[in-house]
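If you are new to this repository, start here. Below is one unmodified record pulled from the training split, so you can see the exact layout before writing a loader.
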Amino acid sequence: AEVKAVREAVGIMDVTAFTKVMVAGPDAYALLDRLTANRMPQKVGSIGLTHMLNRAGRIELETTVVRMADDKFYLVCAAFFEQRLLDHLAQNRDGEDVTVTALSADWSALTINGPRSRDVLAACTDADLSNAGFRWLSAQEITVAGHKIWAFRMSYAGELGWEFHMPNAACLDVYNALWAAGEAHGITDYGSFAMNVMRMENGFKGAGELTNEVTLAEAD
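And here is the target side for that same chain:
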């Protein structure tokens, strides 16, 4: 029922369990560019998916990197990668002037997915949500329920959708506003088992499937 709702209408999920880390400072880009295998986001508001590798060239962790400012990057990854990410950043610094802040306990996150998700979000914000105004894999600070929050145009479920990241105090108000706007569209709560089904249908890899026992090529 949850998968059907996301496929045909709209679903909302609490994804607060994600690891959330801010890397900021004059050398933030240089540090992350050196430690990540993929091209770093170049423009403020752009998003990239990348991996950090160990010295053997195997995958240490997978992370989404959001460029929130010229010198500020927000990293999101699976909950069980948090200590590994913090350790990797600490152990591989080479004098870079950066501040690493763990935000997992202080920030919450929601995701909304499905063909009606744009209609639901449009009822809650004045932001331009069109494809031209809010492109795929981009981030913007928007206002929902009186709170300034970060919205990321991305979807692990494969359907149209956004992730919202915000201080804990904003989350319940944002959730309630989205739910109220979504009732006319058949909004449904969905969970990680439904998400897992949908990302597999889309061919998206799960963090646990990217292990040190396979090469990057074998993992696609």
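Two things worth knowing about this chain: Helices lie at 2-8, 28-35, 82-91, 117-122, 168-182, 192-201. The two ends are 30 Å apart (CA to CA).
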